[in-house]
Amino acid sequence: MKNKKPNKPKEEGAVDAELLRMYLMGAANPKHGTKISAAEDIIDLHLHQSQVGKGKIPANDALFHQIEEFERALDRAIAAGKMEFRVVHGLGKGKLKQEIYKLLDKHPQVKSYENTYHSRYGYGSTIIYLK
Description:
29% of the residues lie in helices and 15% in strands. By secondary structure, it is α+β, with helices and mostly antiparallel strands.
């Protein structure tokens, strides 16, 4: 029989980071829930043509769908403890990028972001730095 070390009581007000991550990822019972999968380093918000219009997503809901996907990716990155991740928004008219920047400007876990040239995405992506 192995000797177990006695559990040290947590300091009052201390937060279990792993438990918090699991709750943020939607686990109803974190001790027995699903494991957190690693968040992506890059999230591409481009929609495939078959998804828009007469496909699954009405054309006027495409932006809403992309913003929802971005918010989920941001939450996953924060919960996974990422320091940075890249969002691919494309160039187009810039509406998606503007909406993403509005969210980033007021998000408490975002340190900064920048739209610098990337060899694969050009200026159609933004790197986001998290706190």
